[in-house]
Amino acid sequence: SSDDIEDVSLFDADDEASRRSKKSKIRHPVASFFHLFFRVSAIVVYLLCELLTSSFIACMVTIILLLSCDFWAVKNVTGRLMVGLRWWNQVDDDGRSHWIFEARKVSARRSKASSEAESRIFWLGLVTCPVIWVIFAFSALFSFKVKWLAVVMMGVVLQGANLYGYIRCKVGNRKNLTSMATSYLGKQFLRQTVAKDDQTAS
């Protein structure tokens, strides 16, 4: 499959007027609520289900429904409203699959630009919850709770897919990801080299 990417910046760092227009208030409170509600609810149900009921099937169905609602809401609604990002897959006339990752360019003229508070809420929920599900996966594996492993892996896959998709929207294609990683590692190596030279000189 080939990747089609609209390579535009979400936050315009050069435009001071755009920065001033981004207030801390939450412009989409309903979207912000549901961005966290389904994913946090799935984690809470997973932690408390054995205390609330002895039915594994009821717990499994509830968690999978919450995870599915979260995947749909984050992919189709909250990402577009809260941070101006969206990703999807489309099939062309030749039957080839294309993954499309888009980032909306925010300018001072747009009154519906996402706020910094919403951006923090979005990325905090998007990154933290998949990490928690990965921890649950290791916990279920090492404690030999095999029946829970399928449920936990569902959480890792669904929330990990949204995380990967939105990182691709924000950063760009794989070449950009590679160049950013290389640049970061190069800067770290340069800093360590300079620090060692300073210690040697002193």
TrEMBL record:
Protein name: Golgi apparatus membrane protein TVP23 homolog
Family membership noted in the UniProt record: Belongs to the TVP23 family.
Biological processes annotated in GO: protein secretion; vesicle-mediated transport
Predominant localisation class: membrane
Keyword DNA repair applies: no
Gene Ontology CC: one annotated term: Golgi membrane
Keywords of this entry: Membrane, Transmembrane, Transmembrane helix
Subcellular locations according to the entry: Membrane
Lineage: Eukaryota, Metazoa, Chordata, Craniata, Vertebrata
Top-level lineage group: Eukaryota
Database matches in Pfam families: DUF846
Membrane topology: Multi-pass membrane protein
Transmembrane regions: 29-48, 54-74, 121-142, 148-167
Organism: Alectura lathami (Australian brush turkey)
